[in-house]
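User: My instructor asked us to take a sequence, write out its structure as tokens, and then describe one feature of it. I'm not sure where to start. Here is the sequence I was given:
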Amino acid sequence: MPTWHTLFILSLIASFIAAFGAWADPSEIRLLFTGDILLSRNVQKELEQRSMSPWGELSDVFGQADLVVGNLEGAVGESNDCLPSGTTAPCFNISESFMPLLASAPFRALSIENNHNYDLGAKGRADTIQALDRVGLIPLTYEASPRFLRFRDVTIGIIALNLVPRRDGGCQSIPAVGVRQKLGLARSLANLVVVYVHWGSELLDWPNKSQRASAKWLIGHGADLIVGHHPHVVQTPEMIEGKPVFFSLGNHLFDQKYPATKEGLIADCRITQGVLRCGGLRTGTARGSFFPHVVEGTQYNLQPVHLRSALQISGITLRPVATDSGKGGEISLEGISHGKRLWQTRANRLAGLSAARFDGENEFLFTLEWHHSPIDDGVALRPYVYTATPQGLVARWRGSALAWPLLDAVVLPDDETTLCGLHRGNSFIDLQPDSRETRVAAYRWNGFGFSGVRDAETTEKCRKCFEMGNEEGPPALGGR
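Assistant: Let's start with the prediction itself. The structure tokens for your sequence are:
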């Protein structure tokens, strides 16, 4: 029979393992995503009455994660700043004094891409971004997507989307050129592409037709993991096209009182040895409270997903320089060889990036960059071609916009010598920025730049590159 000394030591060991289980595999990267977070209305009252963090019950779980992400509903400001609305939709104004609670939880990033981010107008949205930045939190916005974060040797690209019309009617749409570009850029530079999306129908506990169609489109253009929110109830996660999709995580911290709205799900995803495995942690709230805690129940174990390989050009690995800066939107690249950083580029606004062999032999880096040009006297997409050397990227061609104003450009997947361009239908002589007419053209490298290809078969292949499915008329641009 073991002595009490032995039992005491065994209990200490068990406690240590329970408290620091995540240390069992120091190479594991743990990512947690929560659903909707409200810091207004009755949640605000409870915060003021109890004067404590709503995440006290989750401190152990959050503390073991490398990244915790949530969806923040509302905007920083006063209630009298709310925009008028023709509907009964509530306005969620947030006191900036609650921002430190999010940082101490500890969240690392908060998405503001939802139907309440414009409740207080453009100023409220901007003030929210600044308030998050001031307490060291990363504001996830569509404009600054993809946001690249690095954990040890793994680069994660997060794209924040809102598909639900906000107070002023604005939102993103799928399919859209802008969304596809962001997915393509993230796919080129990240080992894991995460789409954190506001979508679906409120209080519907299964994904609607639009969610399913959007999920397939997002995965088809590069998403490896989709995490959704907005319905305020949990929708069962699934594997779609071999990728995990959490259709809705439900409420995380909210004051709705229907039984299903008091339940939530935390997407619990772990990366080990280049493989992503996702499950779910059920949360609930105590009677008379809106503060979440983990509850016993179903834990989803979705199929594993292998991470993407890093982009290499001429033996040099290219990766984005991760940053917590709230500004976002600009990306600096670094060149890595044998684990050593060779160089770092200046920050630049990139819309696309891929490897190509334009001359059929040498490796080039093709990029789409936002720059001002006297050709159209505006900031627009400009194609660039570089070679990668141990000393840095060397520009081989600083392009204009090819033949017509450019909307998108990609290297033809089965022919790296061909560049496909999606253009507006008008010309540089007759600029019409709002034109919905488009045209597709094919180009090949001539040693000094690109020349047009007048080959119907090649042009048709290029046309298929820009087909996005389930749409009528010209593709939506989707903004920057």
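For the description part of your assignment, you could build on this observation: Residues 1-24, 470-475 have pLDDT under 50 and may be disordered. Try explaining in your own words what that tells you about the chain.
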